[in-house]
Amino acid sequence: MSSRKRKRESKPAKSDLISQLPDSILHSILSLLPIMTAFRTSVLSSRWRYLYKDFPLRLSDYFFNLDTRPPHNRFHMPDPVVRDPWFSWLRMAVFSIFNSHHGPIEILELSLFFSFEMDRFVKTAVQRGILELKLVPFDFGRGTYELPLSLLSCNTLHQLSLQRCKFPQALLPSIFPNLRELRLDSMPLPNDLLSKCPSLETLLISTYYDGPSISISSQSLRKLVFHLDGTPTELIIKNAPNLESLMLADEATITNKLKVLDAPKLQRLGFINANVRAIQLGRTVIQQHKESLKSLPPTFQVNVTPCRMNMLSSVKTLAIKMEHYFEKPIPMILKCFPGLENLDIMKYKGNGDKCYLDKGMWEEQGSLSFLDHLKTVTMKGFWGDQCDVELLRYLVVHGKVLQTITLLCSKHITKNFVDIKKRQICIEKRASSNLALVFFRDTKENVHFSLWNDMIYY
Description:
By secondary structure, the protein is α/β, with parallel strands linked by helices. Helix content is 22%, strand content 23%. This is F-box/RNI-like/FBD-like domains-containing protein.
């Protein structure tokens, strides 16, 4: 035997240090990989052959589609998709991974399967301790998926997102015992659902809702997000002692009535549209006169009605949308928030549109109580017209602790434009010596309005 061959045989094999790690650590590594990458590790060696079957599964057929298919060949529309070979392959791949896996299931998101196929996934996921579940039946109006009772009683579920599904007609006395977040899209909200979810903290209602009203009564709810199209609906915050955030799409209060009757811990509210149909904030009711619905500018009336909360004193951050012709309700709205600290205003109207602001309207208000606390103002869509200037001048002159006014401008910013607007706003007469007036170019991605970007229909 040659010396070279003996040398090669005596050389020790390189050690595979990763494979020597405990199963629990390897499972953690696999759970961080894209599902197909984790699936392919089974061919590495006998040590890895069955590891993927026992690690905590996080399976999303939507991202599975994005991860495995060339961008130019991904499907989105239903009819040609059903006949698409890639669609069948994806479904088979998801089935194969799901059926061969024996470990816990943490996340499951399904959008490639029809209603009649959902049960086998859902029931297995419940048995294996599902944490996050998203169901979007691939029926496209041809049916809805009725949730099984086993899902409603699941103890491990923390987050649930449903689209085109429906709840059983007879709900259990208590459902979703540990559910923290619920998202509903294109489906109704049962009247007694919230009162039966003891741990629910976040509720998101979006897209089409066909019902006369949505009444919110929940001891645990902390955040409510409301995107709504469809028939006009009345949203009533009836009894929400722990609600902290109520976020409405920027057009929501035009066609939908809003009543905030009992939310003593509410800190963030918006959007309230100045073109408000009818809104009740505590005991204050603001609504358009019926005879002025077709006239411009419209007129509004303010009434006082008995209510457990007089005003929304706890609200610290408010977002309003100022529509063309609809400046008059703004002072009425601001009076309902005496503790306001952050005011975000969105104005979208073309340059040169007429302003129907009553001359001296803001001066007639005097110093409203919220001005003793107001610290920041952000205006998105600033053109610098009379309506903008009058409002900002009022805030500058009366805002005793105002620190920053940020103007996101809809036009090109020049030094001459900035100097003129500062002079018109009377920045030299500011009540707060620490006030800074800042100009930025407005964009959809502007970080200064990022809190509300998801609530804006561009």
